[in-house]
Input
Amino acid sequence: MRTSLLAFATVALAARPFLNEPDTGIEDVLGSTPNGVLPALESIVGLPDFEWAARHKMNTSAYTYYRNGAAGEWSYRNNLEVFQRFRLRPRVMVDITKIESTLPTTILGHNFSAPFFISPCARAGYAHEGGEENLVKGAAAGNILYMASLYSSKTMDEITAAKGNNSAQVLFQQVYLTDNDTETQALFSRIEKAGSKAIVMTVDSAADGNRHRAARYGVGSADSSYSYLTWDYYHKLSKMTSLPIIPKGIQTVEDARLAVQNGVKAIMLSNHGGRQLDTTPSSLEVALEIHNRDPDIFKQVEVYADGGVRYGADVLKLLSLGVRAVGVGRPFMFSNVFGAEGVEKAVKILKHEVAIDAANLGVADLKKIGPNYVDWRSTNAWFS
Ligand SMILES: Cc1cc2nc3c(=O)[nH]c(=O)nc-3n(C[C@H](O)[C@H](O)[C@H](O)COP(=O)(O)O)c2cc1C
Ligand SMILES: *[C@@H]1O[C@H](CO)[C@@H](O)[C@H](O)[C@H]1NC(C)=O
Ligand SMILES: *[C@@H]1O[C@H](CO)[C@@H](O)[C@H](O)[C@H]1NC(C)=O
Ligand SMILES: *[C@@H]1O[C@H](CO)[C@@H](O)[C@H](O)[C@H]1NC(C)=O
Output
């Protein structure tokens, strides 16, 4: 009996293998595209398509640097799969005709056209020679926030200059810090001078990420020291800049609470796209933990979240728990194989999906979405 059940389970699992990009027919239409050649941008219909295009265009080591997750990549896969484990609860007969006008939001008081942003990702130059400049331009065209990575292909000055005559464009700057206060002070001063409006301090990378896939091509973790980062040190850092410092990589309700107690204005839930410590939870699971155990946190500070967001409905699930804005990493990096136009198209696609998915969910005003739009009983267990 036991054996046959096991055999059945194996067959059932084999019937639904993990797919990096779910099969929505792209092979049927673009399958004959030769390696090294980009399909027409018009043929891209969703965010996962950008990865398909990038994988065909980029060389294997550059693609692998973007695609990589830590160790067995369980967190990487879970980030993508977690959204389908929670069913939506659509309401009908609701006047949703004004939904598009409710997408704009503020992030730390700055106006943007949508509640999602470009998460900080290193080495945009691997996809396109324009590198981060394209991400700045694409974000400007779509009027969304771009958080630039410290380990960018372009210099901070080049990234700032890409704002062009749109110098009012708001950028945030991500940092990794050394334990050398002189260097940190110099970095903070450069960031202020560049006009960034916030410092996003990555706290989920105390040590190197364990990156098997990337190590095969020598494109693994960039930092090889253990970082000294504590809440005491955070207070010292806060005195070194007038900019808000947002911790990125909060993964428990305890640390979210500690961040609030230590006076942060915002936190970012993230497991670094599953690239750092394998079997860490997705930000949706962390948001759910906060919702269940200390929901006031969503009112006390702005909460952002990223990891595995690929569709409008993914954004809605995070917003429904009280997340203010949602970050997207890899899809924007992959969209950059088409240059700034690709980035702009990725923004358009996601904005449209958020609006139509919200409408089909019966949400009249995106600001009023709440946890009742989702059935939070997971349809199956962790990693099944
Ligand atoms: C190629 C790549 C480089 C990244 N570099 C950084 C970085 O320099 N700093 C950082 O805090 N996070 C970095 N991240 C993590 C992203 O900020 C973000 O948390 C993650 O990509 C979100 O998951 P997603 O790619 O599934 O959207 C990187 C992610 C990728 C894919
Ligand atoms: C942001 O939008 C609000 C409401 O539309 C407006 O009153 C405010 O002036 C805007 N702020 C900036 C900096 O543009
Ligand atoms: C792959 O592409 C990247 C980005 O263009 C380049 O830096 C790298 O040298 C290339 N690697 C190989 C092995 O061709
Ligand atoms: C800190 O960095 C500065 C500037 O790079 C350097 O001059 C100094 O020696 C460093 N201090 C330590 C303790 O490493």
Notes: The CA atoms of residues 109 and 331 lie 26 Å apart. The longest strand covers residues 245-250. The beta strands are 105-107, 110-112, 116-118, 145-148, 171-175, 199-202, 245-250, 266-269, 302-306, 325-328. The chain has one domain: 99-375.
